[in-house]
Each structure stands twice: as C-alpha cells, then as structure tokens.
Amino acid sequence: MKRSKLINFILAGTFLVFVALSFLLEYDKGVQSGKEFFKIIIEMLKLLPPAFILIGLFEVWVSRETVITHLGEEGGFKAYLLALLLAGITIGGLYVAFPISQSLYKKGASLKVIFAYLGFAGVFRIPMNVFEISCLGLPFTMTRLMVTIPMFLLIGIVMGHVLKKKSFSIKE
C-alpha cells in the first residue's frame, strides 16, 4: 500500500473510531459531526448514481464531432456560452462537474472551455443562484456573477493557453 493511501486509511479509521466513541460516550460535538458526515454521504449516494448514468448517456449519445465543433478550439465565444449554460444546469456541484469535464476532454473539448466550465460550475448553478437571490437579494447575486463569470472566463483562457504550450494531456 502506498504511503498516501495508508495515511488516508489511518485518518478515515481515526475519524470513524472518534465518531463511534462519541456515540458511546455521548460527546455531543462528535455525535453531531458523525451525523453531518453520514447525512452528506447519504446525499451523495442519492445524487451521484443518477448523475453518472446521465454522464454515461452523454458519452454514448453525443458524438466527438459535435463536441469538437461546439466546444473545441474553433468553438469561439459560443463555446464559453455553452459551457456557462451547461454549468448552470449541472446539479451536484463539482462532484458532478469533474466527471463531466473528463468526458468533455475525452471527446475533444478545448482545455480553455473545460477550465471555464469548471469555474462556472462553482459559481453559476441556477438552483444555487435562485436560493442566493432569495436570501441575499438580486443586486448582490448580480454583482457576484458580474465579477466571477468574467474572472473564470479569463482564468480558463489563460490556463488553457499555458497548458497547451506545455503540451498538457490527461493520462487515461
């Protein structure tokens, strides 16, 4: 077993032992921590299987040529708009955005568009924005979006150019 895997195993085991002892000894902070951890695990188990099924269907139904045409190097500004739209409807945040990015990369999407999509997925999910508007108001949300969307667009373009110069590729 590699050292990093061993460390992760030890940390996970330590946490589980801590939670178990907290339940036995009725240590409130440990009990609450355990309940929150398992609540998140249950949410992920509800969300991830349907998301992965949809990603699998995307892999089968959407051709490589379509992705290259619309999200590839020659996609232009339209590619970033499509990435923004895709990020807006991505449910599950970055848990789902990373596998979608991998699928887009394998189908020939530009690194610039993929990096922009990942940034957009963190800040432009429609359900998150609706909730934010209801809590913090429309002016705050619009100001945040007017700052973050161009910022992630620029970051995506710069990162794509830098990594393309370095002949970056993701290993299978």
Molecular structure report:
With 172 residues, the protein is mostly helical. Helix content is 84%, strand content 0%. It contains eight helices and no strands. It has helices at 3-25, 28-61, 64-71, 76-89, 94-106, 111-123, 126-136, 138-165. α1 (3-25) packs across α2 (28-61), α2 (28-61) runs parallel beside α5 and α5 runs antiparallel to α6 (111-123). The mean pLDDT is 91.
Give the helix tally.
8
Helix content: over 70%
Strand content: under 5%
Total number of strands: 0
> What pattern of helices and strands is seen along the backbone?
HHHHHHHH
**Contiguous runs where pLDDT drops below 50 for at least 5 residues:** none
Q: What is the approximate shape?
A: globular
Assembly context of the chains: single chain
> Could you give the distance between the termini?
21 Å
Query: What gyration radius follows from the Cα positions, in whole Å?
Result: 20 Å
Average pLDDT confidence is 91
By secondary-structure content and strand pairing, the structural class works out as mainly alpha
Q: Give the biggest beta sheet.
A: none
